[in-house]
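Issue 218. Parser rejects a valid record. Input:
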Amino acid sequence: MPARDLTPNIPEVVAEIAGLFERYEQALIDRNVEVLDNTFWNSPHTIRLANHEHGYGFDRIHAHRVARPPGPGHKEKRLRLDIVTLGHDFATVTLVYKVRGREMTGRQMQTWVRFPDVGWRVVAAHVSMIAEQPVL
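Output the parser choked on:
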């Protein structure tokens, strides 16, 4: 088996993921379901776990997106954003943020994979909130 390039944080790959992440965040605000759906891998293996949703499979994730009201959601202020890429085909994005109107901290993680036929897609995501102040 040939060795895979797992070079961390190749600048052009980080920039690509950063742009896709920002597009996704704007689509959340705009409730652009087409962009939201195109961000996630259309597969029964895709998972998105959130505070009041367990999206096992693309269809359940899509159903949640359609029911979600438009608007800025619960993100008031970003506290920390980290993008880690390995090679040209794998990335994670971690966002820590202040929850709007509450003394809580939100956490969001996405695992991205570049597929040969459709490009970058999120294969797993997690959103949660904690009352404790994070150590950043």
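Fixed in the parser; the record now loads. The chain is about 25% helix and 40% strand.
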